[in-house]
């Protein structure tokens, strides 16, 4: 399946979660077996080319893509979690949202020192969550060598923000608007 075929599987919902927003819904892509398999295949090829030794996924939809990529490459998967979900002492980072803050956590023993980590999520918008995840994975001892997304919203600048921080950013597809 081509990237254009995959892009056609992403549903656009206008005015969600608020007026003026075009929400890009990946549930229709992951709900299409051949489409999901093709998206994972494309992303796994990019992770492999980056020399991934560990795949990390951001909760929640990053788990879907990241775990599938990890399985395809027979690599470990590290979940970057929301607070209170891990049963061990954690490394945590607070980060800014449009209205307030949020926190991400990771098991400090989940990333071998110096491991080449590829960070995965479904979508990159402003990049705040991804930048926090990168910092957290670095604190855990990893070297983030690539960030991969199914969708980029380039007008919001998140991929550029990652690249400016020396983290290569790549997406299968991009959509204009936000």
From TrEMBL:
E.C. number(s) listed in UniProt: 2.4.2.7
Pathway(s) served: Purine metabolism; AMP biosynthesis via salvage pathway; AMP from adenine: step 1/1
Source taxon at top rank: Bacteria
Entry keywords, A to Z: Cytoplasm, Glycosyltransferase, Purine salvage, Transferase
Subunit field text: Homodimer.
Entry function: Catalyzes a salvage reaction resulting in the formation of AMP, that is energically less costly than de novo synthesis.
Protein name per UniProt: Adenine phosphoribosyltransferase
Species assigned in the record: Novosphingobium barchaimii LL02
């Amino acid at each position: 399946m081509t990237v254009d075929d995959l892009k056609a599987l992403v549903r656009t919902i206008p005015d969600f979660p608020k007026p003026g927003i075009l929400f890009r819904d990946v549930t229709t892509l992951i709900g299409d077996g051949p489409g999901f398999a093709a998206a994972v295949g494309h992303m796994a090829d990019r992770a492999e080319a980056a020399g991934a030794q560990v795949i990390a996924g951001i909760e929640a939809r990053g788990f879907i893509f990241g775990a599938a990529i990890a399985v395809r490459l027979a690599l470990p998967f590290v979940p970057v979690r929301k607070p209170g979900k891990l049963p061990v002492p954690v490394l945590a980072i607070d980060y800014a949202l449009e209205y307030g803050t949020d926190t991400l956590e990771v098991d400090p023993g989940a990333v071998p020192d110096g491991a080449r980590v590829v960070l995965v999520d479904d979508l990159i918008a402003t990049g705040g969550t991804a930048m926090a995840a990168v910092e957290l994975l670095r604190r855990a001892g990893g070297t983030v060598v690539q960030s991969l997304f199914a969708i980029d919203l380039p007008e919001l600048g998140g991929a550029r923000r990652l690249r400016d921080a020396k983290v290569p950013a790549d997406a299968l597809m991009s959509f204009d608007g936000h």
